[in-house]
Every structure is written in structure tokens, then in C-alpha cells.
Amino acid sequence: MKIGIIGTPQSGKSTIFQLLTNVESSVSSKANVGIAKVPDPRISRLSLIFKPKRTTYATIEFVDIAGLVSGQSKKGNEFLKAVRDVDAIVQVIRAFENELVPTIDGNISPIRDLNQIQSELILTDWSLLETRMEKLVKERVKNPNATKELAVLEKCKDVLENDLPLRSLDLDEEEDKLIRGYDFFTRKPLLLVINVDEDQIRSSSYLQQDELSVWANERSMPLVMVSGQVEMEINQLDDDDKAMFMTELGIEETGISRLAQAVYEHLGLISYFTVGEDEVRAWTIRQGMSARQGAGKIHSDIERGFIRAEVVSNQEFIEYGSMQKLKEKGLFRLEGKEYIIKDGDIINFRFNV
Ligand SMILES: Nc1nc2c(ncn2[C@@H]2O[C@H](COP(=O)(O)OP(=O)(O)O)[C@@H](O)[C@H]2O)c(=O)[nH]1
Ligand SMILES: [Mg+2]
Hints:
By secondary structure, the protein is of the alpha/beta class. Helix content is 43%, strand content 20%. The structure holds guanosine-5'-diphosphate and magnesium ion.
């Protein structure tokens, strides 16, 4: 899973990228890539119980995409090509006041910045689509699939020319397949991050908040409040001071934590766990995966030689405290290859190679 971070210049993209991944973004033409841990209290608790040598949280890869500003949607932008393959997009929007950081057009306007970037993405997709359509029209005579594809692209064009993202277009499975390879930006899942300052955290409010919430709600899109600067400060504190400062700010969890979790959920990802003395570990799968498919995340041998899965739920394990107790209660389950893994299952795979 790879997530692209975009936004207007100086909105706080690199700050948030660094908070997520602990990687400092260098100023270069290359996109900066880093891995973020997805905080999970269930893993923390299991780790306290098993005291393993290693605890491994789920991770998400982030890319800090600095190159997307007005006028970059021209054909053949190398930078955009490099980030085509992200699975979702996070747009960072500036709400924070800071005289030292220049604003666009001399004022702060989250809605304007949101629309500006979204329009840019629509334009980028439109220009890719135009190029592709020109080519297909020429190919039509000798390529029997070209006509079908052109019909779908025609629909896409309509949507984009109405200034709407391709996400809003309902396509059937077959149509969707025909355009999947283009990796259109506006067809990717989108999440919004509003970057606020300390006063805005304390008051839990910022400029144009209602408009932004409505915009996100109408599209079932997560809107996460983060303060890049405050969280940089929190990061430099030791655990006690951190807790105190957060209580004082009136927050239970950092925005960065919530952001990583929101991405995970929005993409339909869940975790199952493996536990033991060596390692307590989260494995990321798509919701709806079978036990056998899930086993393949660990190793293809386990998928191939799958015999059965020994499954207990994380909640029940925490409640009863040991595998033995769960066995006595009949809560230690043996599941076959078709079993659909649930979020939070603790699994031990039996296999034979
Ligand atoms: N006051 C305040 N300043 C911030 C915040 N987030 C980022 N900044 C500052 O804004 C400037 C631009 O941030 P940066 O992350 O480089 O933005 P980018 O251009 O989108 O990558 C830097 O000077 C940051 O220190 C914030 O939440 N509050
Ligand atoms: Mg930057």
C-alpha cells in the first residue's frame, strides 16, 4: 500500500510526511518515500502479554509529492508519472496561522486550496485521457478493443469536463477493468488532512470548517485534523511530558495516529495477528480475504500447503488471558481454507510442504 501526500506549497506536506515516517524530506526532484507504522492498541496489549523479542506493527508507505502545483498538468510531466502508482491520495490543507509561512494570494482559505488541487488533478487526468483517446481513434481500425475502451473514456471525459473526479463515475466491472491501467488520479481514494495550529486544536475549530466538513461528508471522505507543528513538538517530549501536554491540549491521540488508522480503514484494510515468544505481529489484508489467501501474506508455502487455521478472537483472548482458557470455553476454533478472516483474529496456521 502506497499513499501519496499532495497539497498546495507550504501546506505542511513534508512536515506531516516526516511525522508519519520519521524520514526527513529532502528537496529534490525525486519523490520522497517512507514507511509509517499504523498504531494499534491491540498489538501493544498482546506485546505486553507475550513479551516477544520483536513486535511488528502494520505499516503503510507514504510518498511526499511536492511537484503538483498549478500548471504542472501538462502532458508528460515526469514527476507525475513517478507517482501514478499510489493506491490513495492524502491532501494536506492549510488552516494554520503563521506569519512566517507565505500563503496563497495573501490569505488562508482551506476551501480554495482544496478546490485548486482537486481541479489540478482533474486537469491532469483529462490531459492523459486526451492523449490516450487520440491514439485509440487511430488504432480503431485494427484494434477491436479500442472501440469499447473509447466508449468508457468518452464517459470519463464527460465527467472530467464537468469538473468532477472520476471517483464519482459508476462503472461496471468490465468498464472499470478497461481503464484501471491508466491509474487516473481522481479515481483513487482520497482523504483530507486539515493542518491546524495550536489555538485551533484547543478550540477545535478553524476557518471554513463547516464547508469543509460538508464537502467531506457528502463524499464519505475522512477529514482528519492534524497539527504539523504541535505534533513535531510533542515528538520531542519524553512519554510523561507527552501525555501531560496532550491532556492539556484536550486530545487523546495524535492526529498522525488517527491519520494512519483512517487511511487503513478507508482502503478496506484489516489486520490479523500472529503471536508467540519470538514475535507479535500484525498482518495487513483486504477485508473479505479467506484464511488461505491471508496465509499467503506470511509465505506462499503456507498458502500452498494450508491445512487449517487455529483462530481465536483478540477480544476473547484479552478477556480470558490464555489459549488454555479459550480451549476450555470452546472459543479456540479450527477453521478451513474458506474461512473469512476477521479484523483482530489471532491465527496460527497449520500447513504442510
Ligand atoms: N504554525 C504552523 N506551521 C506549520 C505547521 N505545519 C507546517 N508548518 C510550517 O510551514 C512551513 C511549510 O511546511 P512544509 O511541511 O515544508 O510544507 P510543504 O511545502 O507542504 O511540504 C514550514 O516552515 C513548517 O514549519 C503547523 O501545523 N503550524
Ligand atoms: Mg515539502
